[in-house]
Each structure stands twice: as C-alpha cells, then as structure tokens.
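Dear colleague,

Thank you for sharing your sequence with our group. We've completed the structure prediction you requested, and as agreed, I am returning the results in plain text so they can be pasted directly into your records. Please verify that the sequence below matches your submission; if there's any discrepancy, let me know and we will rerun it promptly.
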Amino acid sequence: MYFCYVDDSGADKGRTLTGLLVPEEGWNDLLHHWLDGRRKLEQTWGVPKNTELHAVHLVKGRGRPCATHEQNDGFSRQARIAAHDLMLWHLARCQSVRVLTVAGPTAKVARVYRSFVEHLEQ
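Please find the predicted structure tokens below.
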C-alpha cells in the first residue's frame, strides 16, 4: 500500500497533477524528515509547525505564515525561497518517496486526472 498526496496546478492552457507517493513501510521515515523540516522552519523563521504550507503562498509572499507580525515583516522573498528549499531538502532525504507528475490541457482536466490514476495503478 502507498500513501499519496496529490496537488494540482495550472492556468488557462494547462494543468499538472503531482503526487508524492510513499510506501506504507516508509511512512515513519517520511514523517521524521517532514517534522525535522517543520521544526527548523519554526526555529529559523517562526513558522509554526501546524501552519499549512502552500508553495504559492510561501514563495510568492501571498501568505503570512509566521507566528508574529514582526517575523512576517522580516520574512523576505529570499528567506521564503530558502524555507521552501529547506522543506524540499528534508522531503528528499526520505529515500522511499516517489514523485509522479502528469500534465495536460485545462480543457481536458478529467482526462489529466484519469491519466494520473492510470499511472498510479501501473
């Protein structure tokens, strides 16, 4: 059995679905690395461990993920990119994680989802 987190992204002309897959036996390893990264985010920039992270909010500066106004005001674009990279680095340390991305035209979103599921089943 695998756990899979799927997120979609896209604009008018295209849509991507990206899934992080981890086998059941790799879950504890993934969780360990994820929580290490979250602790580091909190220690370094004041982003609480229970704050939901979205790359678009984190990197593009649309969100205010830090615990205080002062921390958010000091959370520069460069720091946000560093925080994003830190979390990717921690996820990459889990050797059992696999990534699957499927892309297609936005006008055919159902087909993109169907293609994603077909790849998962293979």
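Summary note from our side: The chain has a mean pLDDT of 89.

Kind regards,
the structure core
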